User: Fold this.
Amino acid sequence: MAPQLMWVGLGNMGRGMCKNLVTKGNLDKPPILYNRTRKRSDDLAAALPTGKTEVVDTIAEGVKRADIIFTVVSNDAAVREAVATILQSDVKGKLIVDCSTIHPDTTKQVAEDVLAKGGEFVASPIFGPPAVAEAGTLVFVPAGPKSSIDRIRPYMTGVMGRAEIPFDDKPCESSSKLKIIGNSFILNMASQLGEGLTLGEKSGVGTEPVQQFVDLLFGNLYSAYAERMTQGVYWKREEPLFSAENARKDAGHALSIAKVAGVELNMARQGDEYLKVVADHAGGAKGDIAGIYGAVRKLNGLKFENDV
Assistant:
């Protein structure tokens, strides 16, 4: 019998992931949807075929019937809160899969809490922005017992994702470490693009040739971020694609992991300084990581917002 799935967290990433789970997951039961703000659950359910989802008002209501519970929420505190609420119900034999980006120490503690209650736990953070979640081409990084990871493999590659970087039978926090390292690459890329585009403008080269260079030599994610910068998406969007608040959280986690490992992350420190400017200008929850371009502009005598 196919398992009953539950989804907790319908933000930028969760909505796209859940949509693909419903439309491509070959499910025989509607997944149970829960979001702290119910409207997001109702809106997603309305956008999908009738009868393909079930919305609940409380986590406990869904956990009672769920076999596998996916969580994807914004930060460590939200994960701890969600899992603590899940664990108020009987979770013996149930599998909790956290796809959030959190500190490895948080992952380790949450995993221990779940196991102590008789449940199973897999940490499976994901690589890819919201558009990639929407397209179903994320990269999953599952860590934990292989037997537990095998329970969710039918829903990863070919459904919500295009590939996985597995940590079978490895500590759950292994995947959280890789996710934080990976997000430091994104931060460094945004800083380099912001600096390069600003230098192009101030030196007289212009931003368009810099964008062309990025497209021709790097493409893909570099091009997407450069376009968000040059087209002013970083200051026009009401809901950020990757908030400065969450980017600063990830930078802090990276610096914490590096300190324990005895590694200096000078680029991450500089990126975090730029993010402080973004947060101060636009607000941590509203500013976007691509707003690093605006921060570099502002620090070099230009307006935060570009003219587009």
Q: What stands out?
A: The chain is about 55% helix and 10% strand.
